[in-house]
Specification:
mainly alpha, elongated, 2 strands, two-stranded antiparallel sheet, 51% helix
Length: 140
């Protein structure tokens, strides 16, 4: 399965934001420090998240970011979509006439990976951001 740091860090940062966003905006530098993610990289990620109405920025002293909607409503699949993350288990394009082995036919295990791809994406479609914060809060 391919999942880039962009997708992983977006989920980590938003879980952190949901965890610490009780009443006030959370500065990116705080998330950067707690999660060990480059501030520059977080700024790039949050621009995409803001563009897709996942987060909202608050300017001024005491500013930062807040979630645009409740963590109970935010699907992990929405986060991946916002940062252009595609979770795939196969390298070939499903709509391509060529198979994943470079021939006209698909490889012998193609349908297996295709089915796994459906399960993984269904998992992210059904997993909410709030589930990550509940798990973390139980450990504390």
């Amino acid at each position: 399965m391919k999942l880039t740091t962009k997708g992983r860090y977006a989920v980590m940062a938003l879980a952190d934001l949901a965890n610490f966003n009780k009443a006030n905006p959370v500065p990116l530098r705080d998330i950067s420090f707690r999660q060990g993610i480059s501030l520059f990289y977080l700024e790039q990620i949050f621009l995409k998240l803001k563009k897709h109405n996942i987060v909202r920025s608050i300017r001024g002293s005491g500013g930062g970011y807040i979630l645009f909607k409740n963590a109970d409503e935010l699907k992990l699949s929405e986060i991946f979509f916002a940062v252009d993350e595609k979770v795939k288990t196969i390298n070939c394009n499903k709509d391509s006439k060529k198979g994943c082995n470079g021939k006209l036919s698909k490889c012998i295990t193609h349908n297996l990976w295709d089915e796994l791809d459906l399960h993984i994406n269904s998992f992210f479609e059904n997993k909410k951001l709030s589930e990550l914060t509940k798990t973390q809060n139980k450990k504390l």
